[in-house]
Amino acid sequence: MMDDLVFPSQEFCQNALVSSPQKYLEMYKRSVEDPAGFWSDIASEFYWKKKWGNKVCSENFDVRKGRINIEWFKGGITNACYNCLDRNIESGNGDKIALFWEGNEPGCDGSLTYNQLLKKVCQLANYLKDVGVRKGDGVVIYLPMLMELPIAMLACARIGAVHSVVFAGFSAESVAQRIVDCKPKVILTCNAVMRGPNLINLKNIVDAALAESARNGVAIDICLTYGNDLAMKREDMKWHAGRDIWWQDVVDKCGTTCSVEWVDAEDPLFLLYTSGSTGKPKGVVHTTGGYMVYTATTFKYAFDYKPSDVYWCTADCGWITGHSYITYGPLLNGATVVVYEGAPNYPYAGRCWEIVDKFKVSLFYTAPTLVRSLMREADEHVTRYSRKSLRVLGSVGEPINPSAWRWFFIVVGDSRCPISDTWWQTETGGFLITPLPGAWAQKPGSATFPFFGVQTVIVDEKGSELEGECSGYLCARSSWPGAFRTLYGDHERYETAYFSAFPGYYFSGDGCRRDKDGYYWITGRVDDVINVSGHRIGTAEVESALVSHPQCAEAAVVGVEHEVKGQGIYAFVTLVEGVPYSEDLRKSLVKTVRTQIGAFATPERIHWAPGLPKTRSGKIMRRILRKIASRKLDDLGDISALADPGVVDQLIALAGKNL
Ligand code: ATP
Ligand code: MG
User: Fold this and answer.
1) Mutate to test the pocket of ligand 1, among 401, 426, 456 (most ligand atoms within 8 A of CB)
2) pLDDT-derived band of residue 124, with 50, 70 and 90 as boundaries?
3) Please, what is the Cα angle at 358 between 352 and 363, to 5 degrees?
4) What ipTM did this prediction achieve?
């Protein structure tokens, strides 16, 4: 470690896929000067029943020139499931472990080799075909992190059906809303699941969702229900004869081979609704060929993947991270993937590291929220496990505060493992800005540089590109293979939400700063930017300053109206386990922000928070915090996407008390 630069070890670089900045620059240069050549070389490593036509990519990225349109490998005929499974088996990896499964309770586990996984996928694919699911039909999947979840995704892909995974934590209303939007033929679910110490009866939620969607004119005839006997006896479940079918009764009897439905590269692979941190969910559509090539390539380079690696991503397949970096990206590379059912700190704070040691995990990918929550506990919960197998760590979902980055690097990775802080979105399909471990020095809190083929730019309010050191709106100038192609059933919203703010560019919605060395720093969503006396302040900067205070575990800042300054900074602060609130501590937190950023960023208020409202994917929902901060309590909006709505009441109760 040198100043703010953290260099990979020489040993790591020697064995890395991209081992120096020069090597990256060489590859990056080719990828943007000759994208067709660059990407078709990579795509040729996959199996294509028929090669794509003479155009690798065709796009219109500019609303002023007409309809936004992105196509990659059009005319190429392939199948994502075949490339994940059959192709790896044919190259001799049939007996390699594809999935390790770790259950909620320690000691409860399983595994599938590539051969075994293919058989399971074929059985379910055959069942879906038997009940009339055809190419292009929708299938909603509402399953917890059992191996049946990736199995279900791959079975759909095999027969050309379009899966829409709904995170199995969403309410009946949210499930119904998504069903009504995408009108699936079948829903796949299970009776119940244990999450930590709690039993969640998923089937009851699905029953209510199906009743609700039927009232809205979308009836589903088949509810295929996996009997998760570890959580609940099957007899204890309410049954709707004719509609409900036990998975094990029918799927286990199906044949273990299933021919592949070959699809066009531009046929849809899946749709996935965004988490809803910022409003009504959008059905993001990803197609087959480009997504396949892009997720495989980003996975390989951002994690410096080697065939001997064991990879674990703590996300759920209900989010894009689980699509691209649990199911498709890793399996396309023939990797061994850990699928974990439970909560990361159940039944004890060291559970993650126990799992790392158990499966000899070498690539560990998680979210800042988890890092911060583990940081609140004593380091001893980490250090008593070996963690020797770890090679590369990863972070996604929010900006990672530099102090959380350092803790992750030093305590979890023993100062040995580079951290890939990957910036991307449901819409982008895969990483757009990410470190390549081994290629260059990292800066804690920076996602570093754009991936191959990605032309990220920072623009000002008028949409002019900024050069060098700057700060503004993060956009992309042209497409990459994994880009989303539309919003399901609403291409107009696709164009207005993403391509209209700055014509000629895809606008991510995030703010970003580029430093003097060219490193990119995501400052948070631009909707969250706070304007204090004309200074535009990203939420991430102030939060990182607060979190660097040794007694602060987590922080979220929002803007509130201020008579003089326009907006003032209002900070919600969660303290480290066992630390009491005090006036001295409040002053010391304020001082930390003043010294690290400047007096203009001084928080007006510190609001002690026993917890913060987070979406089910672990992101802080500032929209609700803004309402609490400005005391607009009767208009909190939709809070169904929150993991724990109870937190809101706690915050409101504390609002008047300790300012
Ligand atoms: P919605 O779009 O429905 O409001 P969402 O944006 O939370 O939901 P995702 O697509 O899962 O849904 O998240 C993408 C966003 O997460 C990015 O736009 C960015 O704000 C944030 N993000 C993801 N990874 C990083 C990262 N490494 N650093 C900083 N921010 C990140
Ligand atoms: Mg978003």
Assistant:
1) 426
2) very high
3) 65
4) 0.99
Q: Which residues contact 253 (CB under 8 A, 6 or more apart)?
A: none
Q: Is the CB of 423 under 6 A from ligand 1?
A: yes
Q: What does the pLDDT look like over 337-349, one tens digit per residue?
A: 999 999 899 999 9
Atom of ligand 1 nearest to the CA of 508: 18
The DSSP H or E segment spanning 28 is helix 21-33
Q: From ligand 2's centre to the CA of 275, what distance in Å?
A: 8
- The end-to-end CA distance of the chain, in Å, is 39
Indicate the pTM of the whole model. Answer: 0.95
Residue-wise DSSP of 383-403: HTS--TT--EEEE-SSPPPHH
Within 463-611, strands assigned E span 470-476, 486-487, 506-514, 520-525, 530-532, 535-537, 552-562, 566-575, 603-608
Write the CA distances from 475 to 189, 367, 433, 493, 511, integer angstroms. Answer: 38, 23, 11, 18, 9
Give the model confidence (pLDDT) of 562-581 as tens digits.
Answer: 988 889 999 999 999 889 99
Quick one: which ligand is closest to 404's CA?
A: 1
How far, in Å, CA of 151 to CA of 195, rounded? 20
**In this predicted structure, what is the pLDDT of residue 246?**
97
Token digits for 322?
């689980």
Upper half-sphere CA count for residue 556 (Cβ side, 13 Å) = 25
- Write the CB contacts of 279 (distance below 8 Å, at least 6 apart in sequence): none
Asked if 323 and 396 touch (Cβ cutoff 8 Å), the reply is no
Strands (E), 543-643: 552-562, 566-575, 603-608
Query: How far, in Å, is the centroid of ligand 2 from the Cα of 365?
Result: 20
- pLDDT bin (cut points 50, 70, 90) of residue 617 is confident
